[in-house]
Amino acid sequence: MIKMKDIKITRNPFLLFAPFLLLYIVVIIVFRFEGMVGDESRYLIYSQYMINGFIPKSEINFDTLANGPGYSILLLPLVALHVSILWITLMNALFYYFSIILLYKVLIQFGSFRMAIFTCLFWACYLNIYENLIYALPETLTIFLVCLLIFCLVNVFKNINPRKINWYIFLSGFTFGFLSLTKPIFGYVFLFMIILIGILWIANTKFTNYKRAFIILLVALAITSPYLIYTYKATNKIFYWSTIGGNNLYWMTTPNQSEYGDWFPDINTDSATVTKNPEYDYFEKHIKLNHSKDFEQINKYKTGTKRDEAYKIIAINNIKAYPIKFIKNCVSNMGRILFNFPYSYRQQHPETLLRLPFNGVIVILSLFCIIPTFKNWRKINFAVRFLLLIAFLYLGGSLLGSAETRMFTMIVPILLIWIAVILQKSIRINFSWPYELH
User: Fold this and answer.
1) DSSP state of 6
2) Phi, psi of 235 (to 5 degrees)
3) CA distance 179 to 157
4) Residue 283's pLDDT band (boundaries 50, 70, 90)?
5) Which residue has the higher pLDDT, 60 or 112?
């Protein structure tokens, strides 16, 4: 009798996961709405500025350097052709679909077909992705880039043809660099890693993997250099990635007991956003009461960098004055990253329960894998260790700034690779009784 796993067509990931591509397309077509919401217009506007060849000086403000240019660069040809927002959003279906393919191609190198298929099905059904599919925002692109980086790094640290290794080294660096341009937090991650890997390589120059890793990070730095040069000329600050860091840190350091470190709009400058979103009416009076003095000080500055500095000064003073409250906010931030809870001045929603099964499984399995990881650290593939370092730095940085569950979603593919490798190599599960009970 022929088994399904013996039929070649079932091992072709493009065919295996094609139904999910269709599902994602249907979800976007059915649930995508007319017009734009949130930051969507910002990315399209700055794509148009790039097409025009310059950004007006009057527009170099807080928003201009808030999110990085990666997604806007990708949108250049579509904006130039005046493609509708629906078609732009439909790219998310392809990004998510190809992220599954890349994840499968990596997993099949580390273990069985069964392990690869079940892990990819988990990722294909991962609920948090679906809420981002219908928006023209960089979250789904970021997920694809993370999976592409995983695929390239695994191939860098394999014993394959040197020419292929050089190609994957360049592609890894390019992907890491473009990922940093898309989500600036990854820029801080790879800058820290350049220092760390550089020190490790100097201490052990015979270890080829450190050399390859360091070259990857240098390529990433080269890819991001034009943007960093631009931000230096605009702000006179070295390695300046974004003007939004101070804002996120400010909300994380709030000393008010009824606030948990989640982000709020500046009610003085974002009044249009506040009035368009009915949910903001519920807590507007609390924000005015608790933060109006800070906003008066911050809004004296008109440039994004000056306001960013003002946010950071107040935030640092809050940490010094209320360190215990800051720690409590970080714990609450961990809850928001994992389960989208708690939020200040907002009613609870049953939808929050839908996040528990997926992220709950990831959290439990991650805790389960910690001890085997430490015990077998040197035996673990170097690419997996490299990716774990990225995930650790990313999550650590995210905890210090006001974050949401979509931040966790971006790093889930790395955690799935890690969990799958550890379970495959060090854990044996037997569903039958080893002896008969009496």
Assistant:
1) G
2) -125, -15
3) 20
4) low
5) 112
CA angle at residue 62 from 54 to 280, to 5 degrees? 130
Pick from 8-17, 129-138, 164-173, 405-414: least confident: 8-17
Rg (CA), the chain: 23
Q: What is the pLDDT of residue 61?
A: 56
Please name which of 10, 405, 422, 410 lies closest in space to residue 185, comparing C-alpha atoms.
Answer: 410
In sequence order, the 6+-apart residues with CB closer than 8 A to the CB of 426 are 372, 376
Per DSSP, the three-state class of 67 is coil
Residues in the chain: 438
Provide the pLDDT confidence category of residue 348 given band limits of 50, 70 and 90.
confident
pLDDT confidence tier of residue 172, bands split at 50, 70 and 90:
very high
Alpha carbons 8 and 359: distance in angstroms, whole number: 33
Amino acid letter, residue 366? S
What would the two tokens of residue 4 be? Answer: 């399904």
For the residues 338-358, what does the mean pLDDT come to? 85
Query: CA-CA distance, 210 to 214, in Å (whole number)?
Result: 6
This prediction has a pTM of 0.92
Q: What is d(CA 434, CA 430) in angstroms, rounded to the nearest whole number? A: 8
Q: What average pLDDT does range 256-277 have in this prediction?
A: 68
| pLDDT at residue 65, as a whole number | 77
Residue 399 has pLDDT above 60, yes or no: yes
Count the neighbouring beta carbons within 10 Å of the beta carbon of residue 39: 16
CA dihedral (107, 108, 111, 113) positive or negative:
positive
Q: Check if the beta carbon of residue 255 is closer than 8 Å to that of residue 321.
A: yes
Helix-then-strand count for the chain, H and E: 21, 0
Burial category of 356 from C-beta neighbours within 10 Å (exposed 0-12, middle 13-18, buried 19 and up): middle
Mean pLDDT of 256-278: 67
List, as one string, the DSSP characters of 126-176: -HHHHHHHTS-STHHHHHHHHHHHHHHHHHHTSS--HHHHHHHHHHHHHHH
| Structure confidence at residue 10 (pLDDT) | 66
Sequence-separated contacts (24+) of 367-373 with Cβ below 8 Å: 369/418, 369/419, 369/422, 369/423, 372/422, 372/426, 372/427, 373/418, 373/422
CA distance 180 to 227: 10
Which residue shows structure tokens 């000329």?
233
Specify the residue for token string 């009798």: 1
- CA pair distance 153, 382, nearest whole angstrom: 9
